[in-house]
Every structure is written in C-alpha cells, then in structure tokens.
Specification:
The chain has 100 residues and is mainly alpha-helical. It is built from 5 helices and no strands.
Length: 100
C-alpha cells in the first residue's frame, strides 16, 4: 500500500481506529501480515460472541454465526473493532522496519 502518511501518522491513525483491517494488513510484509490477519480473526470472533451474549442478535432465535465472525457485530462495534486490530498491528508494524 502506498501512502502519503509518515510512520508516526499511520501509527496514530491505527491507535484511533481510523484504519480498517485491510488497510493495516496492506502496510505489513507478508509474514507479519498473516499473523496479523489470524489475530484479527480471533478479535472478530470475540466481538461476535460478545454481540450474541448481549442478546443483540440479527435473528430472533439467536446468532447464526456462533463460533464464527459476523459482519453486523463488527459494524456495531466500530470503531472499537478497528482499535483492537490497530493494537495488534502496532508492534508488527514497528518491528517491520517502518519506524527508523
């Protein structure tokens, strides 16, 4: 991903939840990108579980995606979801030689 932002600006945007998972992943080399995406998938499942546990399910009978990731749960959790992924991304970005 080509960007006009400095490393410091990107890190600030990530901390504030202003970049989505795809934008963050595109800023990482291949190896840490895979680890980042796997970690974000776990965060997605946690947000989906929390949504279902709160009774805020899309279906009257409950969550159809138990154990999986639900887009509606993630949209409802924004920007906290982006912030959570940003917290996972920061150390990977720092260690990938972007912050010299």
């Amino acid at each position: 991903m080509t960007t006009e932002y400095s490393s410091a600006q990107l890190m600030s945007l990530a901390e504030r939840g202003m970049l989505d998972k795809t934008q963050l992943a595109d800023l990482l080399p291949e190896e840490p990108r895979s680890a980042f995406l796997a970690a974000c998938a776990e965060v997605e499942r946690e947000f989906t579980h929390d949504c279902a546990a709160d009774g805020e399910t899309c279906l009257p009978a409950g969550c159809a995606l138990e154990g999986e990731s639900c887009l509606n749960a993630l949209l409802a959790a924004a920007p906290e979801y982006n912030k959570a992924c940003g917290r996972l991304w920061l150390p990977l970005f720092r260690s990938s030689k972007h912050t010299a």
